[in-house]
Amino acid sequence: MGKQLNVLIVGGAGYIGSHMVKMLSQLGHEVITLDNLSNGYRDAVMFGNFIEGDITDKKLLNKLFSDNDFDAVMHFASYIQVGESVSNPSIYYKNNVSNTLVLLDSMVEHGIKNFIFSSTAAIFGEPQYTPIDESHTKSPINPYGHSKLIVEQILSDYDYAYNLKFVSLRYFNAAGADPENQLGERHSPETHLIPLVLQAASGRRDSITIFGDKYDTPDGTCIRDYIHVNDLCSAHLLALEHLDKGGNSKSYNLGNGQGYSIKEIIDNAKIITGKDFNVVIGKYRDGDPARLVADSKLIQSELGWKPEFSDIKIILRHAWEWEQIFNNWT
Hints:
CATH superfamily of the largest domain: NAD(P)-binding Rossmann-like Domain
Mean pLDDT: 94
Strand order of the largest sheet: 3-2-1-4-5-6-11
Low-confidence stretches: none
CATH class of the largest domain: Alpha Beta
Radius of gyration: 19 Å
Distance between the termini: 39 Å
Order of helices and strands: EHEEHEHHEHEEHEEEHEEHEEHH
Number of domains: 2
C-alpha cells in the first residue's frame, strides 16, 4: 500500500490478530491493539501500541476514537469454540453480538467508516454443495455460526443506515504459524486439528483422535480446507486497501479451495515431524459434514488475493516449528 494507515485491531493479542498486527506494522502502518487478554497473550503483541481493555468500555472507546484518527477497525475479538457455544450460548451472543454492537455504535458516533470483520464458514451450516461460494445458503447449525451471521446482517444494516463500510471475511480452517517463528497458535483449550496433531508428535499429548472414519470420502475421514494464517492476513490487507479507496461493502470466503482429509493431515504431519504417534478412532460427532471446502474465486478476482502458502506441507512445517518453540516454553 502506498500510504500509511492508522488501524485499531480489537482482539490483536490472539492467534490471527497478532499475526495481523505484525504484518501491518512491518509494512509501515500505525497499529493500536485493544484486547482484554481473556483469550490472548500480551507477549504476542510485539508491534505498535497495546491497550488492555474491553470493547464494552464505552469511556475507553470514546477516548481511543477521540485521540486517534483511525482509518479502519479490524475485529478479531470473537469467541470461536463451536462446542462451547452449544453448551453456553449466552456468552457467545453477548460477546460476539452485543459487545460488537457497542464497538460499532462507537465507530458510528465518531465517524469511523471502515470495518473488517472476521467471520466464519460456520454461517453456512451443512453444505449443500462444495466448494462453498458466497451465494451458498446460510443456515448455521450452532450458536457460534448464528452469532457471526447476526453480525454480518447488522453490518449490512449499518452500511445502509450509517454508511459504515465493511468487508466480512469468512474463514474456513485457519492454520500454520508465522514463518519467522515469532508467533503461532495458542488456544486454551486447543480444539484445532493441526496443533492437536503436532502436540501428539511433540509428546505434549498422548494421542490424536479421529472422530469417525466411515464418511463418504476417499479415506473415510472428514475433508477440510486449511488456510495459512499469513494468507488470511494478506486478505485483510487487501480488504483494508479496498475500503480505504472507497470500495463498497463486501463479503468473501477464504480458503485454499482444496481439501485435505484428517488422515492426510496426520500422515503428512508424521513425515514433516519425523515422529510417530498414536491415532485413536473415536465416536462420530454431531454436525460434522464430510466435506467443507471453500470457493475463494470471488476475492481472487475482485481483490487479487492469492494464497502464498497453499501447500499443506508448508502449513504443517511452520506450525511444527512453532510447536517446538512453544513446547520448550512449557
